[in-house]
Amino acid sequence: MKRTRIIATAILFLTCWAGVLSADTHVVFKANRKIFGREKVLQWESWACAGKQYIKAPTRPSIVRNDLGLRWELYPGTSTYIETPIAQASGPANGAQKPAPTKGKEDLRFAGMEFEEVLEWRLSDAEAVETRHGIECRRHRLIGDSDHSHIEIVVWVAPHGRDKGLALVPEILATYKRFFDADAGMAKIFERYPDGGIADLQAVLETSFGSDMQFSVEIGSLEEAAAPAGIYDIPGDFKKGA
Amino acid sequence: MKTVIKNRTARTKRSVLPAALALLALLVAGPSFAAASEPELPGYVKTHLSFLDESFRILDMTAGKIWPGWKNYNDFPFMFTYTNGLNVLIGHPNPPAEFHKLAGLSVAGKDVYADFSKISDIPQEEPLFAGGGPNFFGTNKAGEPVQTIFMNYFSARKGMKGGQGAVPGPYTVESQIMCFIHELFHCFQMSGGMRIDDAGNPSMNPDTDYAVYSDIEGKALLRAYREKDGEKAAMYIRDFVAARMIKYEKSMPPEEQRAEAWEELVEGTAVYTSVRLAELFAGGYDARIKPAKPYTFTSFRNSSFFIEGYQKSLQKSAAKVYDILDRDYEYGCYEAILLERNVPGWQKVFTEKTTNLYAELSRLFPVRKEDLAGYEKRFIKLYGADKTRVRCAAAMKKRDDAYYAIKDRKGMAYIINLSRVVKNENAVYPDTERLTMGMVNIYLDGLPAAKIGNCEISRIPGPVVREQIYHIKAVDTKMKAGAEPYSVTCTKQNGNIYEGAVITTPLFTLKAPLVRIDESTGRVKITVLPVLSHQD
């Protein structure tokens, strides 16, 4: 469900790209997480042009074809792909209510064991105008708070960054969902900047047990260039998988 | 919300002099100033390092006798963490950049590093005791995560036995050494020394059946341990096995049975290392350390104190109604000891296959299912099971009623988050009576006024809950619409961060040098923050 929301967000941006871009945009993002002194840096890459995007995630590549209403997840190890209709992939908008739990007698043997940390988000006004990687950005502070967790994200928003291939960041952030779920926070940014993208982002998560976890996503490189031929198409030798 | 910012003149005056001196020092000392300003390692850390050093020396003498094949205890770094933010890393192959090597210091030939960047003004009241456990910290030069033993220090006066304190109190240096060795044994277990069925911690609340049969199990283990006659001892072991069979049947889902068996094996054999050490050093040994007061150390000449202490712990654990986790330490330990008495080389099977202590005991002392009804009668006669049931049922009702009383309260919720200034559960209202349901501790009569970390909290009327260890939650169910939920006076405000804050709510007053207040619908969360020594 959460993933489909991200896909839906990405698709929304892609829809708006159509007819805007005249050249391909190549962006490389570096996603960094530091937990208990352990640092892990992952690289994401994106090629984008009107209505089409190729995403090379650390796990696997995917192709978003808004012009066809399809997303293809590619599995190079088996030369297969999975096709998801974009319309079908569109989940409920951010903040949609989960179905109410069915009521029954509570088994107290398992009461109080788990807490669902639903972060309530607030977005600050722009604190500064700063240039990041040659792009004019507005620096905001996005804060998520729940009973036992707190996250503060400093985010550099490019008001027209969607045209620069910067719509990928929420998808990158979604890979950290086992630590925190920022979908609703991202939605607040894009409510304010419908054409926006995110250039850089630095997050500090205060966990319930008092330790900090640090996350960042930043542009490694950004260029306008001709994409490799056929990059927005399924490789010829790939077969449709289940 | 009302905020009053107090005059800061006094504080400003105080801060001018150090700044001027620092500037002068910079001018005089020139480039070498940075090195000269490196904080000195506090004396208490050096004391604790000497205890760790002695622990490695003791293991050189005893590890193979405690558990055949245990040799890798030198392979695991330690991280000492203090409530004032000081972190000390010992023997890490590739310390993160914030850790600086301390010249002239080593522990069993291992380098020592410290991170002073987060050090605050929170006082350290000695004697300090540390509990903790292994976790990954940093990477080695090949980029692989490093299993590191975290030891979190807290004042020993604020309680010894908690989720982390695996050694009975009161505080002695021997108990700290046993604790270091306990955690090193966990690293041995996890690095292939034992075959472990990783079932995770038990995660259920006890019910009456669980409490009754656990009580019988503990009493039976103690009788078996103390019984000199082999046949009678075997009978008591069968009582233990039968009680567990009934407990499994009546109260515990299979995944919880696995978790309990896992916990008993992992923690029980780690506690067993302490008992064995006390036995091996009975009468004392030739120690190299002579710690000064308030630390007390008798070079294990008082080893019988520990051996008897564990029996008392077992007795106490058996009688606990609400506990489901702590008892596994003692039960597992005595299951291991009973295996040792009955099976020469009993440890071997745990390196060869995935099994657990209960499974091995029940294999040696089997009980037939059709005999369980007879055991039930024996439990009433020998262990007073009927009276135990009455006691446990009343306690469960009290807990369940309390849980329902706090569960769906509506009103303005106040949360005090102490996780940034406290690193051990024992520092948070350790002596206040509570009822526990999962990660929720319920204080029906409220909480007394207390100083915790660097903050002072007034009495909070009940019911109050403590969730996720460090989060105090009180709900004002009578707040009128439109009423201000709180007011603050402070010396300085930056957004929602307040220095020198006094926060007044309808339920309590909180005083702290630094706090952050986050407001959301129906909730005010006050996070108490540490004041870093280098913070203006």
Polypeptide structure, described:
- The complex is a heterodimer of chains A (242) and B (536).
- Chain A has four helices and 13 strands.
- Chain A is mostly beta strands.
- In chain A, strands 1, 2, 3, 4, 5, 6, 7, 8, 9, 10, 11, 12 and 13 form a 13-stranded mixed β-sheet that branches.
- The radius of gyration of chain A is 19 Å and the shape is globular.
- Residues 10-21 and 88-99 of chain A have low confidence and may be disordered.
- With 536 residues, chain B is of the alpha+beta class.
- Chain B has helices spanning 9-29, 33-36, 43-66, 173-193, 208-226, 230-251, 254-280, 303-319, 327-342, 348-352, 357-364, 372-383, 385-407; strands spanning 2-5, 78-81, 87-90, 100-107, 110-115, 128-139, 145-155, 412-417, 435-437, 440-443, 450-452, 455-457, 464-467, 471-476, 487-490, 492-494, 497-504, 509-520, 523-528.
- In chain B, a hairpin with a 2-residue loop joins strand 11 (450-452) and strand 12.
- Classes of the chains: A mainly beta (242), B alpha+beta (536).
Question: Secondary structure elements and their pairing?
Answer:
The complex is a heterodimer of chains A (242) and B (536).
Chain A: H1 2-17, E1 25-35, E2 38-49, E3 52-56, E4 61-65, E5 70-75, E6 80-85, H2 86-89, E7 120-123, E8 128-132, E9 135-145, E10 150-158, H3 169-173, H4 183-192, E11 197-206, E12 212-224, E13 239-240
Parallel strand pairs in A: 6-13
Antiparallel strand pairs in A: 1-2, 1-12, 2-3, 3-4, 4-5, 5-6, 7-9, 8-9, 9-10, 10-11, 11-12
Chain B: E1 2-5, H1 9-29, H2 33-36, H3 43-66, E2 78-81, E3 87-90, E4 100-107, E5 110-115, E6 128-139, E7 145-155, H4 173-193, H5 208-226, H6 230-251, H7 254-280, H8 303-319, H9 327-342, H10 348-352, H11 357-364, H12 372-383, H13 385-407, E8 412-417, E9 435-437, E10 440-443, E11 450-452, E12 455-457, E13 464-467, E14 471-476, E15 487-490, E16 492-494, E17 497-504, E18 509-520, E19 523-528
Parallel strand pairs in B: 1-15, 2-7, 8-19
Antiparallel strand pairs in B: 2-3, 3-5, 4-5, 6-7, 8-14, 9-10, 10-13, 11-12, 12-18, 13-14, 15-17, 16-17, 17-18, 18-19
Helix pairs in contact in B: 3-4, 4-7, 5-6, 5-8, 5-9, 5-13, 6-12, 7-8, 7-9, 8-9, 9-11
